[in-house]
Amino acid sequence: MNRIDRLFSQDLKVINIGLESFSKDLKKQEVSVVQLDWKPRAGGNAKLSSLLDRLKSNK
Fold first, then answer.
1. pLDDT tens across 15-32, in order?
2. Which of 14, 20, 37, 38 could form a disulfide bond with 33, CB atoms 3.0-4.6 angstroms apart?
3. What's the burial of 16, exposed, middle or buried (CB within 10 Å: 0-12/13-18/19+)?
């Protein structure tokens, strides 16, 4: 059995970073999941923030 086959023959264990709804859906499917409550640091990335603001204004 190669390494990939061994990997997929084991139970799935997930660390979810971000949206809690993803971990809730996994738990409903009886997947072992740990929810990490993470948020970008204050201020974040100014360039990315500007791009996101432009996307929002185009709706």
1. 999 889 999 999 999 999
2. 14
3. buried
Q: How far is CA 26 from the centre of its chain?
A: 12
The label of the residue with tokens 């809690």 reads 20
Phi, psi of 13 (to 5 degrees): -130, 125
Contacts of 22 (CB under 8 A, 6+ apart): 16
- CA angle at residue 39 from 38 to 40, to 5 degrees? 130
3-state secondary structure of 9: coil
CB 16 within 8 A of CB 37: no
pTM: 0.54
